[in-house]
Design brief:
It is a single chain. α5 runs parallel beside α7 and α16 runs antiparallel to α17. This protein has one domain: Metal-dependent hydrolases (TIM Barrel, Alpha-Beta Barrel). It is built from 17 helices and eight strands. Helix content is 51%, strand content 14%. Strands 1-2-3-4-5-6-7-8 form an eight-stranded parallel beta sheet, with helices on both faces. It has 338 residues and is of the alpha/beta class. The N and C termini lie close together (6 Å). The protein is globular, with a radius of gyration of 19 Å. Bound molecules: hypoxanthine and zinc ion. Keywords: Hydrolase, Metal-binding, Nucleotide metabolism, Zinc. It catalyses: adenine + H2O + H(+) = hypoxanthine + NH4(+). Catalyzes the hydrolytic deamination of adenine to hypoxanthine. Plays an important role in the purine salvage pathway and in nitrogen catabolism. One of its GO terms (biological process) is nucleotide metabolic process. Belongs to the metallo-dependent hydrolases superfamily. Adenosine and AMP deaminases family. Adenine deaminase type 2 subfamily.
Protein backbone atom coordinates (compact mmCIF):
# COMPACT_ATOMS: atom_id res chain seq x y z
CA UNK A 1 0.00 0.00 0.00
CA UNK A 2 1.34 3.44 -0.93
CA UNK A 3 1.58 6.13 1.72
CA UNK A 4 -1.33 8.52 2.07
CA UNK A 5 0.33 11.42 0.23
CA UNK A 6 1.05 9.29 -2.82
CA UNK A 7 -2.41 7.69 -2.60
CA UNK A 8 -4.03 11.14 -2.72
CA UNK A 9 -1.85 12.34 -5.60
CA UNK A 10 -2.60 9.28 -7.68
CA UNK A 11 -6.31 9.22 -6.88
CA UNK A 12 -8.14 10.08 -10.13
CA UNK A 13 -10.33 13.08 -9.41
CA UNK A 14 -12.24 15.97 -10.96
CA UNK A 15 -11.97 19.56 -9.82
CA UNK A 16 -15.32 21.36 -9.89
CA UNK A 17 -14.62 24.66 -8.11
CA UNK A 18 -11.68 26.56 -9.49
CA UNK A 19 -11.58 30.22 -10.48
CA UNK A 20 -8.99 30.39 -13.23
CA UNK A 21 -8.13 33.99 -12.27
CA UNK A 22 -7.44 32.63 -8.78
CA UNK A 23 -4.72 30.36 -10.13
CA UNK A 24 -2.55 33.38 -11.02
CA UNK A 25 0.66 32.75 -9.08
CA UNK A 26 2.70 35.81 -8.01
CA UNK A 27 5.60 34.76 -10.29
CA UNK A 28 3.23 34.71 -13.24
CA UNK A 29 1.73 38.05 -12.17
CA UNK A 30 5.19 39.61 -12.51
CA UNK A 31 5.84 37.87 -15.83
CA UNK A 32 2.55 39.05 -17.37
CA UNK A 33 3.02 42.56 -15.93
CA UNK A 34 6.46 42.76 -17.55
CA UNK A 35 5.43 41.46 -20.93
CA UNK A 36 2.34 43.70 -21.04
CA UNK A 37 4.06 46.79 -19.60
CA UNK A 38 1.64 46.91 -16.66
CA UNK A 39 2.75 48.35 -13.30
CA UNK A 40 1.80 46.39 -10.20
CA UNK A 41 1.87 47.78 -6.66
CA UNK A 42 4.35 45.17 -5.39
CA UNK A 43 8.15 45.11 -5.49
CA UNK A 44 8.64 41.36 -5.16
CA UNK A 45 6.95 37.97 -5.16
CA UNK A 46 7.43 37.82 -1.38
CA UNK A 47 5.66 41.13 -0.99
CA UNK A 48 2.71 39.81 -3.01
CA UNK A 49 2.51 36.65 -0.88
CA UNK A 50 2.69 38.72 2.31
CA UNK A 51 -0.40 40.63 1.14
CA UNK A 52 -2.43 37.40 1.07
CA UNK A 53 -3.62 37.69 4.64
CA UNK A 54 -7.40 37.93 4.50
CA UNK A 55 -10.06 38.35 7.19
CA UNK A 56 -13.03 37.75 4.92
CA UNK A 57 -14.15 37.24 1.32
CA UNK A 58 -14.13 40.94 0.40
CA UNK A 59 -10.54 41.39 1.61
CA UNK A 60 -9.51 38.66 -0.80
CA UNK A 61 -11.67 39.87 -3.69
CA UNK A 62 -10.08 43.34 -3.59
CA UNK A 63 -6.63 41.82 -4.16
CA UNK A 64 -7.89 39.17 -6.61
CA UNK A 65 -9.48 41.75 -8.92
CA UNK A 66 -6.36 43.95 -8.73
CA UNK A 67 -4.15 40.98 -9.64
CA UNK A 68 -6.28 40.15 -12.68
CA UNK A 69 -5.29 43.48 -14.25
CA UNK A 70 -2.08 41.92 -15.64
CA UNK A 71 -4.17 39.61 -17.86
CA UNK A 72 -4.46 41.33 -21.22
CA UNK A 73 -3.98 39.02 -24.19
CA UNK A 74 -5.26 35.69 -25.47
CA UNK A 75 -1.80 34.30 -24.77
CA UNK A 76 -2.03 35.40 -21.12
CA UNK A 77 -5.30 33.51 -20.64
CA UNK A 78 -3.93 30.47 -22.46
CA UNK A 79 -0.74 30.43 -20.38
CA UNK A 80 -2.69 30.99 -17.17
CA UNK A 81 -5.02 28.08 -17.89
CA UNK A 82 -2.21 25.80 -19.02
CA UNK A 83 -0.17 26.46 -15.87
CA UNK A 84 -3.24 25.47 -13.83
CA UNK A 85 -3.86 22.32 -15.89
CA UNK A 86 -0.19 21.28 -15.56
CA UNK A 87 -0.46 21.52 -11.76
CA UNK A 88 -3.87 19.88 -11.68
CA UNK A 89 -2.67 16.95 -13.82
CA UNK A 90 0.27 16.46 -11.42
CA UNK A 91 -2.36 16.25 -8.64
CA UNK A 92 -4.30 13.45 -10.33
CA UNK A 93 -7.00 15.71 -11.81
CA UNK A 94 -8.34 14.09 -14.99
CA UNK A 95 -11.25 16.49 -15.51
CA UNK A 96 -11.77 20.13 -14.45
CA UNK A 97 -14.78 22.44 -14.69
CA UNK A 98 -13.31 25.90 -14.35
CA UNK A 99 -14.92 29.26 -13.61
CA UNK A 100 -14.01 32.46 -15.38
CA UNK A 101 -15.21 35.98 -14.59
CA UNK A 102 -15.68 37.78 -17.94
CA UNK A 103 -16.84 41.04 -16.35
CA UNK A 104 -13.51 41.41 -14.52
CA UNK A 105 -11.94 41.67 -17.96
CA UNK A 106 -14.56 43.29 -20.20
CA UNK A 107 -14.84 46.15 -17.70
CA UNK A 108 -11.11 46.82 -18.26
CA UNK A 109 -11.53 46.81 -22.02
CA UNK A 110 -10.40 43.22 -22.62
CA UNK A 111 -12.95 41.72 -25.04
CA UNK A 112 -14.93 38.60 -24.08
CA UNK A 113 -13.42 36.73 -27.04
CA UNK A 114 -9.83 37.33 -25.89
CA UNK A 115 -10.67 35.68 -22.57
CA UNK A 116 -12.72 32.81 -24.00
CA UNK A 117 -10.39 32.00 -26.90
CA UNK A 118 -7.33 32.09 -24.65
CA UNK A 119 -8.90 29.73 -22.10
CA UNK A 120 -10.17 27.39 -24.83
CA UNK A 121 -6.67 27.24 -26.34
CA UNK A 122 -5.29 26.29 -22.91
CA UNK A 123 -7.94 23.60 -22.56
CA UNK A 124 -7.14 22.10 -25.96
CA UNK A 125 -3.42 21.99 -25.15
CA UNK A 126 -4.10 20.40 -21.72
CA UNK A 127 -6.08 17.62 -23.36
CA UNK A 128 -3.22 16.98 -25.79
CA UNK A 129 -0.52 17.21 -23.12
CA UNK A 130 -2.19 15.34 -20.24
CA UNK A 131 -5.44 13.83 -21.54
CA UNK A 132 -7.10 16.16 -19.04
CA UNK A 133 -10.57 17.25 -20.15
CA UNK A 134 -12.15 20.55 -19.09
CA UNK A 135 -15.34 22.55 -19.26
CA UNK A 136 -15.89 26.29 -18.89
CA UNK A 137 -18.38 27.91 -16.51
CA UNK A 138 -19.10 31.59 -17.03
CA UNK A 139 -19.57 33.33 -13.67
CA UNK A 140 -21.56 36.51 -13.21
CA UNK A 141 -20.17 38.93 -10.62
CA UNK A 142 -22.99 39.30 -8.12
CA UNK A 143 -21.88 42.75 -6.87
CA UNK A 144 -22.74 44.07 -10.35
CA UNK A 145 -26.33 44.49 -11.51
CA UNK A 146 -28.67 42.26 -13.45
CA UNK A 147 -28.37 44.32 -16.65
CA UNK A 148 -24.60 43.83 -16.65
CA UNK A 149 -25.06 40.07 -16.26
CA UNK A 150 -27.52 40.06 -19.19
CA UNK A 151 -25.00 42.00 -21.32
CA UNK A 152 -22.36 39.43 -20.45
CA UNK A 153 -24.65 36.56 -21.45
CA UNK A 154 -25.24 38.38 -24.73
CA UNK A 155 -21.48 38.78 -25.34
CA UNK A 156 -21.08 35.04 -24.73
CA UNK A 157 -23.44 34.06 -27.54
CA UNK A 158 -20.77 33.17 -30.17
CA UNK A 159 -19.06 30.84 -27.65
CA UNK A 160 -22.15 29.25 -26.11
CA UNK A 161 -21.52 25.81 -27.60
CA UNK A 162 -18.16 25.83 -25.80
CA UNK A 163 -19.49 26.96 -22.43
CA UNK A 164 -21.04 24.32 -20.17
CA UNK A 165 -22.85 26.56 -17.76
CA UNK A 166 -23.18 29.75 -15.77
CA UNK A 167 -22.24 30.47 -12.17
CA UNK A 168 -22.48 33.25 -9.61
CA UNK A 169 -19.53 34.53 -7.59
CA UNK A 170 -17.97 37.59 -5.90
CA UNK A 171 -19.32 39.40 -2.79
CA UNK A 172 -22.11 37.23 -1.42
CA UNK A 173 -23.52 39.23 1.50
CA UNK A 174 -26.12 41.72 0.29
CA UNK A 175 -26.26 40.10 -3.16
CA UNK A 176 -28.70 37.19 -2.84
CA UNK A 177 -29.30 34.74 -5.68
CA UNK A 178 -32.78 36.28 -6.23
CA UNK A 179 -31.04 39.26 -7.86
CA UNK A 180 -30.14 36.98 -10.80
CA UNK A 181 -33.25 34.80 -11.10
CA UNK A 182 -34.13 36.18 -14.56
CA UNK A 183 -30.58 35.89 -15.92
CA UNK A 184 -30.39 32.27 -14.77
CA UNK A 185 -33.79 31.54 -16.33
CA UNK A 186 -32.46 32.94 -19.63
CA UNK A 187 -29.29 30.83 -19.32
CA UNK A 188 -31.40 27.72 -18.63
CA UNK A 189 -33.45 28.44 -21.74
CA UNK A 190 -30.17 28.46 -23.72
CA UNK A 191 -29.45 24.95 -22.43
CA UNK A 192 -26.74 26.00 -19.98
CA UNK A 193 -26.09 24.26 -16.67
CA UNK A 194 -26.37 26.42 -13.55
CA UNK A 195 -24.26 26.66 -10.42
CA UNK A 196 -23.95 29.36 -7.76
CA UNK A 197 -21.80 30.23 -4.78
CA UNK A 198 -24.16 30.13 -1.82
CA UNK A 199 -23.71 29.67 1.91
CA UNK A 200 -20.01 30.58 1.83
CA UNK A 201 -20.59 33.74 3.91
CA UNK A 202 -24.30 34.11 3.19
CA UNK A 203 -27.10 32.54 5.27
CA UNK A 204 -28.95 29.29 4.56
CA UNK A 205 -31.72 31.38 2.95
CA UNK A 206 -29.33 32.14 0.08
CA UNK A 207 -28.92 28.40 -0.48
CA UNK A 208 -32.71 28.00 -0.58
CA UNK A 209 -32.82 30.81 -3.16
CA UNK A 210 -30.10 29.21 -5.28
CA UNK A 211 -32.15 26.01 -5.38
CA UNK A 212 -35.62 27.53 -5.77
CA UNK A 213 -34.96 30.66 -7.84
CA UNK A 214 -31.84 29.77 -9.85
CA UNK A 215 -32.51 26.03 -10.24
CA UNK A 216 -28.85 25.18 -9.64
CA UNK A 217 -27.47 21.82 -10.72
CA UNK A 218 -24.65 22.15 -8.19
CA UNK A 219 -23.94 24.25 -5.13
CA UNK A 220 -20.60 26.04 -4.67
CA UNK A 221 -19.43 25.96 -1.04
CA UNK A 222 -22.81 25.56 0.70
CA UNK A 223 -21.15 25.33 4.13
CA UNK A 224 -23.76 27.39 5.97
CA UNK A 225 -26.46 24.90 4.90
CA UNK A 226 -25.33 22.98 7.99
CA UNK A 227 -27.13 25.58 10.14
CA UNK A 228 -30.48 24.44 8.72
CA UNK A 229 -31.31 20.73 9.31
CA UNK A 230 -34.28 20.79 6.93
CA UNK A 231 -32.03 22.20 4.21
CA UNK A 232 -29.39 19.53 4.87
CA UNK A 233 -32.08 16.86 4.53
CA UNK A 234 -33.24 18.40 1.26
CA UNK A 235 -29.72 18.56 -0.17
CA UNK A 236 -28.99 14.98 0.88
CA UNK A 237 -32.30 13.66 -0.47
CA UNK A 238 -31.82 15.33 -3.84
CA UNK A 239 -28.18 14.23 -4.20
CA UNK A 240 -27.05 17.83 -4.65
CA UNK A 241 -23.30 18.17 -5.10
CA UNK A 242 -21.49 20.65 -2.86
CA UNK A 243 -18.14 21.94 -4.10
CA UNK A 244 -16.37 22.44 -0.79
CA UNK A 245 -13.04 24.30 -0.59
CA UNK A 246 -11.33 23.56 2.74
CA UNK A 247 -8.18 25.73 2.49
CA UNK A 248 -10.28 28.61 1.11
CA UNK A 249 -12.67 28.33 4.07
CA UNK A 250 -9.77 28.66 6.50
CA UNK A 251 -7.97 31.42 4.58
CA UNK A 252 -11.17 33.52 4.39
CA UNK A 253 -11.91 32.88 8.08
CA UNK A 254 -15.18 31.05 7.44
CA UNK A 255 -13.79 28.04 9.34
CA UNK A 256 -11.47 28.65 12.33
CA UNK A 257 -8.92 26.01 11.33
CA UNK A 258 -8.62 22.90 9.19
CA UNK A 259 -8.90 20.79 12.37
CA UNK A 260 -12.53 21.85 12.78
CA UNK A 261 -13.52 21.77 9.10
CA UNK A 262 -16.98 20.17 8.65
CA UNK A 263 -16.08 18.05 5.59
CA UNK A 264 -16.46 14.75 7.46
CA UNK A 265 -19.71 15.92 9.04
CA UNK A 266 -21.02 16.69 5.56
CA UNK A 267 -20.21 13.15 4.44
CA UNK A 268 -21.80 11.58 7.54
CA UNK A 269 -24.94 13.66 6.91
CA UNK A 270 -25.19 12.09 3.47
CA UNK A 271 -24.23 15.21 1.52
CA UNK A 272 -22.46 14.72 -1.80
CA UNK A 273 -19.44 16.80 -0.85
CA UNK A 274 -16.41 17.27 -3.08
CA UNK A 275 -13.00 18.84 -2.38
CA UNK A 276 -11.67 21.70 -4.46
CA UNK A 277 -9.10 24.50 -4.38
CA UNK A 278 -11.18 27.63 -5.27
CA UNK A 279 -8.32 30.14 -5.77
CA UNK A 280 -5.19 28.04 -5.24
CA UNK A 281 -2.62 30.79 -5.83
CA UNK A 282 -4.22 32.86 -3.06
CA UNK A 283 -5.33 30.22 -0.56
CA UNK A 284 -2.18 28.17 -0.11
CA UNK A 285 -2.70 25.09 -2.17
CA UNK A 286 -4.01 23.13 -5.14
CA UNK A 287 -6.56 20.33 -4.97
CA UNK A 288 -4.05 17.73 -3.73
CA UNK A 289 -3.08 20.06 -0.88
CA UNK A 290 -6.77 20.38 0.02
CA UNK A 291 -7.23 16.59 0.15
CA UNK A 292 -4.06 16.25 2.24
CA UNK A 293 -5.09 19.04 4.61
CA UNK A 294 -8.46 17.46 5.44
CA UNK A 295 -7.06 13.91 5.52
CA UNK A 296 -4.68 15.05 8.25
CA UNK A 297 -6.84 17.70 9.95
CA UNK A 298 -9.97 15.54 10.13
CA UNK A 299 -8.32 12.12 10.09
CA UNK A 300 -10.21 10.98 7.01
CA UNK A 301 -9.54 7.40 6.00
CA UNK A 302 -8.94 6.13 2.46
CA UNK A 303 -12.61 5.23 2.03
CA UNK A 304 -13.60 8.84 2.75
CA UNK A 305 -11.03 10.14 0.27
CA UNK A 306 -12.28 7.73 -2.38
CA UNK A 307 -15.87 8.86 -1.68
CA UNK A 308 -14.80 12.47 -2.22
CA UNK A 309 -13.11 11.59 -5.52
CA UNK A 310 -16.14 9.52 -6.57
CA UNK A 311 -18.42 12.45 -5.74
CA UNK A 312 -16.31 14.72 -7.93
CA UNK A 313 -17.17 12.62 -10.99
CA UNK A 314 -20.81 12.10 -9.99
CA UNK A 315 -21.20 15.87 -9.54
CA UNK A 316 -19.51 16.77 -12.83
CA UNK A 317 -21.27 17.79 -16.04
CA UNK A 318 -19.78 14.83 -17.92
CA UNK A 319 -22.13 12.36 -19.64
CA UNK A 320 -23.23 9.22 -17.78
CA UNK A 321 -20.89 7.13 -19.95
CA UNK A 322 -17.94 9.42 -19.26
CA UNK A 323 -18.68 9.33 -15.52
CA UNK A 324 -18.90 5.52 -15.61
CA UNK A 325 -15.51 5.39 -17.38
CA UNK A 326 -13.88 7.57 -14.72
CA UNK A 327 -15.46 5.57 -11.87
CA UNK A 328 -14.16 2.31 -13.36
CA UNK A 329 -10.63 3.78 -13.40
CA UNK A 330 -11.06 5.02 -9.85
CA UNK A 331 -12.14 1.52 -8.71
CA UNK A 332 -9.17 -0.03 -10.51
CA UNK A 333 -6.81 2.43 -8.80
CA UNK A 334 -8.21 1.62 -5.36
CA UNK A 335 -8.06 -2.12 -6.00
CA UNK A 336 -4.47 -1.95 -7.23
CA UNK A 337 -3.49 -0.11 -4.07
CA UNK A 338 -5.19 -2.49 -1.61
O1 LIG B 1 -14.29 32.09 -2.98
C1 LIG B 1 -14.90 32.91 -3.71
N1 LIG B 1 -16.13 33.33 -3.37
C2 LIG B 1 -16.82 34.19 -4.11
N2 LIG B 1 -16.33 34.72 -5.22
C3 LIG B 1 -15.12 34.34 -5.63
N3 LIG B 1 -14.43 34.71 -6.71
C4 LIG B 1 -13.28 34.07 -6.67
N4 LIG B 1 -13.21 33.31 -5.58
C5 LIG B 1 -14.37 33.46 -4.90
ZN1 LIG C 1 -15.27 30.12 -5.44
Amino acid sequence: MTDLDAFITGLPKAELHLHIEGSLEPEQMFEFARRNGVTIPFASVDEVRAAYDFSNLQDFLDIYYAGADVLRTEEDFRDLALAYFDRAAADGVVHAEIFFDPQTHTHRGVPFGVVANGLLAGMAEAEKRHGLTAKLILCFLRHLDEADAFRTLEQAQPWLDQIAGVGLDSSELGHPPSKFARVFAAAAAMGLKRVAHAGEEGPPDYVHEALDLLGVDRLDHGNRSLEDPALVARLARSGMTLTVCPLSNVKLCNVASIDVHPIDRMLRLGLRATVNSDDPAYFGGYVGDNYRAIAKGRELDRDDLVTLARNSFLGSFLSDDEVAGHLAKLDAYVEADA
